UniProtKB/TrEMBL annotation, chains A, B:
GO molecular-function term, one example from the UniProt record: metal ion binding
Organism, scientific name: Streptohalobacillus salinus
A GO BP entry: proteolysis
Lineage: Bacteria, Bacillati, Bacillota, Bacilli, Bacillales
Domain Peptidase M20 dimerisation residue range list: 194-351
One Pfam family in the UniProt entry: M20_dimer
PANTHER family, per the entry: BETA-ALA-HIS DIPEPTIDASE, SUCCINYL-DIAMINOPIMELATE DESUCCINYLASE
Keywords: Hydrolase, Metal-binding, Protease
Gene3D superfamilies xrefs: 3.30.70.360, Zn peptidases
UniProt-recorded name of the protein: Acetylornithine deacetylase/succinyl-diaminopimelate desuccinylase-like protein
Length: 452, 452
């Protein structure tokens, strides 16, 4: 039966690509207030497509900003229920002049579909619609209960989604979730993303004298805020890349030997070449890949104070500011880590200066699902069958807030099944998506839905 | 005879203030190319005044930018020759709206003469002219040979003066120099400035990846340039304010117990109050005043890299830049210190990043004259007699390049006899000069010239 379902997708490929073309033509740029109508059109497209393939419950739900599409299909309450998440909003397309073809006029060149949203995330959302359609049209039903949430604010922080998920917990509740809003570590390399990092951060300012001072008349009498800031930052992480903030590693779930093997087995970027750095630098005892995927980080994102112009200005500046964020791993609590950072800064501030701290209000716990979890095993098998290659299992150093929220609110596993490739140029001009992955991805999804 | 000379100055006070009024009305703003005519007028004023009081040789010398006034009076080649230095150019007067009276319409209020240049340096230059006039008119001659150099580019870096002094060494050569372009540490406190700091500097940039990176995807694989910069800076000076650059203190002339007593005896600013700092911080083993006046410093004047906007941007920035300057004391060679800084930076750069260094081309050696030098002793005595108060002896943490050049080119002592006060608001709106200091300063100069 699976083969017939997959055959349906192949037979109707042209119709599907035509429909996707319509979807991609809608300029659903969520950050641009003049595109409100396009946002509604894109949401309507998704709702109508779902109704068209047999979802009786498929509706647009207004939020304080952009609407989300909710749909539901209950086959048998006793069966498993999946929550499919995706987003129909896209990044702005400018600078337009760097696009080879128009961003909202989808074009195929050398097997790739070029358009804003082709990969992130309309193209991948649409693959789920096709998989669902193929099952409905071939077997007359879906193999499990399905809830669908396609939002319109992912590119601007999903500010209304988190609230909605918490307030309408029952409406969105499911046994597991599936998200295709990510990619594969290399073209043709099935990739199971089974963990994401959390984060927390803060900004702090070291203040010395009440204005910039003449470095000759006052140098030697006052603490230089820039030097005080350097001492403070240097006290937070040593040159072995080990964070020295007391308690920082206390709750870190250690990397198992099995996970370290998985991470080393995944093909990875040659950092030295792609980034033009003399060498990689990672926490002592861990490789760059292990540190990036599985160990917490502390990074200075911005640092400034004093004179920035040409030449020399001999001042002692009145203040220095640093912006810090940490990427967290399972076990670490963002609020606790933020407090440890505050404590460290306050207790390590040199004499002669004052420090003020602004805590970053957004934070997230890390997400991780056991790579041996039956859902993950099933995902990898479906993936491998379609792409004819063994899947790799990786954790990502980045954060996908919605995944962390689903984990936090519903306590259900999230299957991250992404089909993008490193060449997709998300958020940049000439975004594209390989049609091969469109086809094989749909096969993967059909196989997964029918076997899970 | 001295008393008669001083009496001359008193008797002709109104005429002198009228002449000074004319001098101050000339808008000799050296930085403003539209004021070229005013520059020539100011130079002419000085030349004509000198001719009027009996200088046969008094001329305007053109330079590549603004002219300088040179005058010469040879009484007897066997006698001592003094070189009097000053400048007739002034800082721009804007913002005009913050002036209580017009900057180029001199006004007396509560014993102070308000005008741009009243203190820095036309007012003080004019005091020398009056002292010379009083001696000439009273005794028919000057008590020593005099050379005068009043330039027009002090406020813009004296770019042509240094070259002229070197090229025409014989023309300007003297046995000692006198400069009144500074002030007293407190109103009514005769202040002998017997030392200035030298300086050197550089700017350096720590470069990591070839563009800003996503802190989640790359954090743990690359060295963060901002953190590398913090480690580098922290390695250069510890929290005891001791510079850790190897060899930095090697040639430093130590502070004698006598000098430390002089420095402690001078009234000084209450830094905590005036600067609003929790406490002063100085090199371990030295007080703030001792460090500022007599010990070398290393200061970060500017530091920047990464995101500086509102909120959070989770990047690892591609680079970080710092601007450094050192104030040097006698014994230290600016070029050697600059090389030590370069060596330190290069040898302490953490792995994984590259560093590029831009050496600041301007540098200066420190200047110091023995506080027991007969010229200095004479200056303090003349000062004390006029102001009826014991003089304090201080060194200044700042640099006055012309003093360091005179020292370097002519190897002669420079007497820094300044009559400005901390309330003069040099370079700011409402610049002023106390008329009391105009009177007592002229007395001091007369006494000095006639006794030296």
């Amino acid at each position: 039966m699976i083969e017939q379902v997959k055959q349906y997708a192949k037979t109707h490929r042209d119709a599907h690509l035509n429909a996707l073309d319509q979807f991609l033509r809608i300029e659903s740029v969520s950050t641009d207030p003049t595109h409100q109508e396009a946002m509604t059109s894109a949401a309507s497209f998704v709702r109508d497509y779902l109704r068209g393939i047999g979802f009786d419950t498929a509706r647009i739900e207004e939020t304080a900003k952009h609407p989300l599409v909710f749909a539901e299909y209950v086959k048998d309450p006793a069966l498993k229920t999946v929550l499919i998440y995706g987003h129909y909003d896209v990044q702005p397309a400018d600078p337009y002049e760097l696009w080879t073809s128009e961003p909202f006029e989808p074009t195929v060149r050398e097997g790739r579909l070029y358009a804003r949203g082709a990969s992130d995330d309309k193209g991948q959302v649409f693959m789920h619609l096709v998989a669902l359609e193929a099952m409905m049209k071939t077997t007359g039903e879906l193999p499990l209960n399905v809830k669908i949430c396609i939002e319109g604010e992912e590119e601007i922080g999903s500010e209304n989604l988190y609230q909605r998920l918490r307030e309408k917990k029952d409406q969105f509740d499911a046994d597991f979730a599936i998200v295709s809003d990510s990619g594969m570590v290399a073209e043709d390399q099935p990739t199971i993303l089974y963990g994401l990092k959390g984060f927390t951060g803060l900004e702090f300012t070291v203040t010395g004298p009440n204005n910039d001072l003449h470095s000759g008349l006052y140098g030697g009498a006052v603490r230089n805020p820039l030097m005080a800031m350097s001492h403070l930052l240097a006290s937070m992480k040593d040159t072995d890349e080990i964070v020295k903030v007391e308690g920082f590693y206390e709750d870190v779930e250690p990397l198992t030997e099995f996970e370290r093997q998985l991470m080393q087995a995944a093909p990875s970027e040659n950092y030295q070449t792609t980034l033009n750095i003399p060498e990689t630098v990672s926490e002592k005892g861990y490789s760059a890949v292990e540190h990036t995927m599985g160990r917490p980080t502390l990074e200075v994102n911005g640092l400034f104070g004093g004179y920035q112009g040409e030449g020399t200005k001999t001042i002692i500046p009145e203040k220095a500011t640093a912006k810090l964020t940490c990427r967290l791993v399972p076990g670490q609590d963002p609020e606790k880590i933020q407090q440890l950072l505050v404590d460290h800064i306050e207790s390590h501030t040199p004499t002669g200066v004052r420090v003020t701290i602004k805590r970053e209000p957004l934070s997230a716990k890390a997400y991780k699902v056991d790579p041996d979890h039956p859902l993950i095993v099933q995902a990898s098998q479906s993936y491998e069958k379609a792409f004819n290659k063994t899947a790799v299992f990786v954790r990502m150093g980045g954060s996908i807030p919605v995944v962390e929220w689903i984990d936090d609110i519903f306590k259900i596993p999230v299957v991250l099944l992404g089909f993008g490739t490193p060449s997709d140029r998300l958020h940049s001009p000439n975004e594209s998506f390989p049609l091969k992955n469109f086809d094989l991805g749909i096969e993967t999804l059909i196989d997964f839905y029918m076997n899970v």
